[in-house]
Fold:
Amino acid sequence: MKLKISRRVSAIQPSATLAIAGIARELKAKGQPVLSFSAGEPDFASPEGALAAARNAMDRGETRYTANSGIPELKRAIAGYYKTRFDLDYAPSEIIVSSGAKQVLYQAGQTLADLDDEVLLPNPAWVSYVEQVRLADAGEVIIDTSSTGFIPTRDGMESALSKKTVGMIINTPNNPTGVVYGRDTLEMLADVARQNDLWIIYDEIYERLTYGEAKHYNILQIAPDLRDRVIIVNGVSKAYSMTGWRIGYALGPKEAIAKMDDIQSHLSSNATSIAQWASVGAIESGESYIESNRREFERRRDLLMDLLSGVEGLRLERPDGAFYAFIDVRNSSVPDDNEFCRRILEEKFVALVPGDAFFAPGYVRMSYACSEDDIREGAERIKEFLRG
Structure:
C-alpha cells in the first residue's frame, strides 16, 4: 500500500535557492571549480562577541530548555535595539525568538491567515513567502512591479484588493532585487493597509545593509498608528553573519505574539539555548562589526557593477541594499532564466538563482556575499558564457 501524501504538502515547491546551493556543494565536493552566488549567506565569521557569549553560556551550563518564546536576556537586547535604532517600545510579551526568521514568518502566517484568505505580495518576492501563505490555506496575490523599478504603487496594490484580502507581506531591503523602499512608498503601503483594515508582515532582515544615500525605515516610524496590525520580522543571520546559529525574532501585538508562541510550543519549542546567548552577545557588542561588514558589502556591490555593467545582453540596476544583484537576461543569448542558470552551472560552474523562483522570469539573482576574488572570477565566467 502506497503512503498517502497530503494535498497541502504535495503542492509545496522546494526552495530554489537551497536546491541550487545544494547542487553547487555537490559539484564542489566532486572537485569541480564551482563558484556559488546562490545562497544569501555572508562569508564573514560571526562576531567575537557572539562567540564569547556562546562559550560563556556553555561554561555556565546554559544547555537546557529555555522559555519557549526566548530567554529574557535576548528579549531585552532586542527591545533595546529597537528602541535605540527606531525609537520603538516593545515589552518582552510582544517579542518571540524562533529558530530563524523563516520559522517566525511561518508562525506569523499561520496566526494571521485563514482558509481562502488572500495575501498581497509585491514581486519579485522571496521564494518562501508564497509557500508559507499556501501552508496557511490562504492564497497569494502577486503584484507585478517590473515596470516601476520593482517598487509597488498604489494603483498596483489597490487593484489587487478583493473582499478576501486580509494582509500583505512587505520586504525591504528586498530579496532578490536589493531595492530599498523609500518613505513615500512605505507611507502609501501603510495607507492601503489602514484604509482596507489589512495586517502587515514587515520583513526587514536586511535592514542594516543599505548603501550610498539609501535609508531604511521601519514602517512604524512612518505609521505608528498601525502598531496593532504590524508584525516585524528580523534576526541575526544577515547583519551579524550568523546564518548557522538559526535565530530569528518577531515583534508585534501581544495577542498575535502569544498565538505564535502557542504554535512554536508544538512545532519546535525554544530556539537553541547557546545560539540565543550568542545572539545576546552579538546585539550588545556588534555595532562596529556591522558597519565594517556593510562597507565591505558596498565595495563588493560597486565592484560587481563595474564588472558587469555594459556587458552585452545583460541589464542590471545598482542595488541599494541587501547583497544581491538582480540581472535581466532577457536580451542575452540565453533569455530563459532557468536555462541560463542550468547551463552556466554545467558549463562554467557558476551557481545563480533563476528569477522565476521569485515570480520574475527573465532575471537571475547573483549574491555578492562572497570574496572579491570570487566576484572577479565569476564575472569573467559569465562573460565567457555569454560569448559562447
User: Anything to note?
Assistant: The CA atoms of residues 263 and 332 lie 47 Å apart. The first strand starts at residue 35 and ends at 36. DSSP finds 14 helices and twelve strands in the chain. The radius of gyration is 21 Å.
